[in-house]
Amino acid sequence: MELVPARMTGVDAVTVRPGRPLAGTVRADGSKNAALPLLAAAASLRRGVHLSGVPASADVQRMLGLLEQCGYRVAHPVAEPGAVIVMPKGGPIEVPELADAARIRASYYLVAPLLAACGQAVLPWPGGCQIGDRGMDLHFKVYEAFGDTVLLDDTGYRVLAGQARDRVVLTLPFRSRGASIVAVCRAVASGSRLELGNPNLSPETTGVLAALRTAGWQAHASEEQITLDPPPGVTAGTVAWTVPGDKTEAGTLACAIAATGGEGRIEGINGPDLKALAGLLDWVGVPITLAPDAVTVHQARTVGGRPLRAIASLAPDGLDADFEPPLMALALTLPGIHLFCDDINPGRHGNLIPQLTRLGGVIEELSATHCRLVGPQRLSGTGVQATDIRTGSALLIAALNARGATTVSGLDQLRRGHADLPGKLRTLGADITEVPQ
After folding, report:
1. Secondary structure element (H or E) that encloses residue 383, with its range
2. Whole-model pTM?
3. Which residues of the chain fall short of a pLDDT of 70?
C-alpha cells in the first residue's frame, strides 16, 4: 500500500502569494516525532504491534524500510491506510549494513531493535536536518549503563550487547528526549527494570510509556524519575498502538492562521500538548482553545506591542524547540520587540535567519542561538530555500504575508517531517501552487 500522497510528491518548489485570512478546518497528520520512537519500541518488544496513524512523511517511511533491513516484518494492511504491523521474523539475523540510516536524524532509535534482533548494532552517524550537534555521547552513556560496549570511528558507531541486567539505574545530566527514549527502548529489548532520573517528559516520551503499558509493562513517570518494569509473565499476541496527531504540525498551522489574521480549527491533535505555545499566542492577542481532540484559533484581539519571548526548553512545561521557527515567522507580523532562543538546536538559526533576511526580514543575531526582531515588518516575495524541516514551515508562514510571490524550494526537506503541509495550508485558503519542474 502506498502511503505517500499523490499531491506534492516529487515537487521541489511551490509559489506562495498573499491572500485572504486563513480559515476553516484541517486535520493534522500523525506525528513524525512520536511515530519514530513508537516504531523503535514496537520492534524492541519482539512481538507483533499494530500501529495506526502512521504518517506518510519521508523520515517515517525510511524508518519502516530500515526496520525491514534490521530483520523485522513490516506489513501494510490494505484496508487500513496509515496502518502498519511490525513483528519479528524469527530465526538468526545477520548484522545489516544500514547506509540509508545516515539520511535521518533519528536513526539512533534503531540500536535497541538491532540489539534485540542480532545482539549488535552498526550504524552511521545520524543525518537529517543540519541544525547542530547530534549529542550522541549521552546515548552512549545509556548503553554503557546497560553493560553494552560502544565502539566509534569516523564513519559511525557499533554497539555490542552486554549480558542482560535485571536492573539499570541512570540519571541524565539534562532532560534529553532522545536519550530518555533510547533508555526506555533498551530496557524493553533486554527485559530490564529501568530507573531513569531527570527524564524528558515530552508527549513523545510519555506516549511510548503509555503504549508499553498496553503490552504489559509497568511504567510510572514523574519529573524526578521514570520507572519501567517488565511484564510479570510471558506475553504474546499483537498489541494495538496509535500514533498521536502531530503537535508541531498543528502549532505551525496555528501560527499560519494567526499570521494572516484568520481563525480556524485543527483536528486530530491533543490540544493540551500545545499549552506552552497557546500561552504565548494568547499573550500577543491570539486566543487559542485547547480541546482533547482539536485546537481552535480565534480571531485576534487588539493587544498593543506585547513582546514575544520564544525560549526553547526541555522542561516538562517548556516550549518545544520545533515551535520556535513558526513563532519567529509570526512575530514578523506583530508589533513589539520579540526575543527568540534555541540552545537545543544550535544550528537552526543559521539556517532560518538568512532565508527570512532574503524576504526582507531584519533580525538581530545576539549570538548563534539568540536573536531578536522588531515588528511588524514588511516582507517582499523572492526565492527562498527550505534547508531543514522547520525552516521550510516557517518560510511558508512568512510568505503568506510577503508582498508579491515567494517561491519556496527544497520541499524534500519539508516532506521529511510533513507529508503535505502546503496542501493543508491550501485547505485553509492559502494561495499556494506547485512550480512545474
Report:
1. strand 383-385
2. 0.92
3. 1-10, 128-135, 234, 437
